Amino acid sequence: MIAVIMAGGSGTRFWPQSRIAKPKQFLDVVGDKSMIRLTMERLLQDLPTEKIFVVTAESQVKLVKKDLPELPAKNIIIEPFGMNTAPCIALSYAYIKRFASLTETMVVLPADHLITKVDAFLENILKSEESARASNLVTFGIIPTYPATGYGYIQAGKKVNDFSYEVAQFKEKPNYETAQNFLKEGNFFWNSGMFAWTIGVIEETYRKHLPEVVEVLDLIEQRWNDSGENADISDLYAQMPRIPVDVGIMEKAEKRVVIPVDLGWSDVGSWRALADISETDENGNTIQSDSFVIDSKQNYIRSKKFVALIGVEDMVLIETDDAILLAKKERSEEVKKVVDYLQKHNEKLL
């Protein structure tokens, strides 16, 4: 088995702490180790280092090497720049098949997810190999604990074996009422963005459902053959369509299975999501600074300064050396609008 860690994201929903120079996956947002380091250490419990690959943007290679010094240089797959998950995964399988058999299982994992039940994670990764070797595209569905509106869902269909089901359909992020109905039906799971398949099967699936990606990929492979894996492919990679693998592949493919899992999982996709999984005081506050609090609850504070809270609820306050974010928890994902503004007016703060 080979594992691919996708680590090329920009982490805009974690501004102002996440920046272009050091995005979310390289931050220690859930402990004293970076998200990518935690992901690597989970895998190292079952896989040797040479079986773990990281795909990342060229601008982040130095960060990968710093956080994962034991990773061989050839195990870093370099995107000239971030695109989306369909091009990212295509580049990864094309690169890895130069060193591995087409029958080998390839597990694909985001670098910035929190998983607290590591034993369950490793057990289900091993289960996925059985399904992948039966020519299935495997996805992991998180057993929902509440009617979340921030995740896509996977509907399970016919039972395949003791641990997996056919995928009936993928559903986009629902409204609250729809999410409640999903939970009542009992066969809907959160889409984790984690996958498994054999290299040969995913290559065949791309050729069938995303031929425009494969056309570019064939040119990239030819350049690698001519000039080596460190050749500049930026002009070719720019021709890739910016689409997620869910839309380009998983929603179209025929043999898809979902493995429902309970992993203590969170995609830690926003400051609110981080607040939801953080330890709190008796009033529901998470305060990472010296502070004084009066009649305030359910707040999330990260600051190097003394913070006084008086009569405030459900707020997020994030302070860095050069910026402060203050937002209602429920609107914290709108920080992406701040990033859009800064791209036009003050790139120094990105």
Summarize the topology.
Elements: E1 2-6, H1 35-44, E2 52-57, H2 61-67, E3 76-79, H3 85-96, E4 105-110, E5 114-115, H4 118-132, E6 137-142, E7 153-159, E8 165-171, H5 176-185, E9 188-198, H6 199-209, H7 211-227, H8 234-237, H9 245-250, E10 256-261, E11 265-266, H10 271-277, E12 286-288, E13 291-294, E14 300-302, E15 307-310, E16 315-319, E17 324-328, H11 335-345
Parallel strand pairs: 1-2, 1-4, 2-3, 6-10, 12-14, 13-15, 14-16
Antiparallel strand pairs: 4-9, 5-11, 6-9, 7-8, 7-9, 8-10, 16-17
Structural class: alpha/beta
Most strands sheet: 5 strands, mixed, barrel
Binned, the helix content reads 25-40%
Oligomeric description of these chains = single chain
Under CATH, the homologous superfamily of the largest domain reads Spore Coat Polysaccharide Biosynthesis Protein SpsA, Chain A
Number of strands: 17
CATH class of the largest domain: Alpha Beta
Average pLDDT value?
94
How many alpha or pi helices?
Answer: 11
Shape: globular
Number of domains: 2
Rg on CA atoms, Å: 21 Å
Task: Give start-end ranges of low-pLDDT stretches.
Answer: none
- Give the percentage of residues in beta strands: 15-25%
Distance N terminus to C terminus? 38 Å
Describe the strand arrangement of the main beta sheet, using strand numbers: 6-9-7-8-10
Description:
The protein is of the alpha/beta class and 350 residues long. The protein folds into 2 domains: 2-266, Alpha-Beta Complex (Spore Coat Polysaccharide Biosynthesis Protein SpsA, Chain A), CATH 3.90.550; 273-349, no CATH class. It is built from 11 helices and 17 strands. It has helices at residues 35-44, 61-67, 85-96, 118-132, 176-185, 199-209, 211-227, 234-237, 245-250, 271-277, 335-345; strands at residues 2-6, 52-57, 76-79, 105-110, 114-115, 137-142, 153-159, 165-171, 188-198, 256-261, 265-266, 286-288, 291-294, 300-302, 307-310, 315-319, 324-328. The strands form 4 sheets. It has a 5-stranded mixed beta barrel with strand order 6-9-7-8-10. It has a 4-stranded mixed beta sheet with strand order 12-14-16-17, with helices on one face. A hairpin with a 5-residue loop joins strand 7 and strand 8 (165-171). Helix 3 crosses helix 6 (199-209), helix 3 packs across helix 7 (211-227) and helix 6 (199-209) packs across helix 7. The longest helix has 17 residues, at 211-227. It is globular and about 65 Å long. The two termini are 38 Å apart. The model has no long low-confidence stretch (mean pLDDT 94).
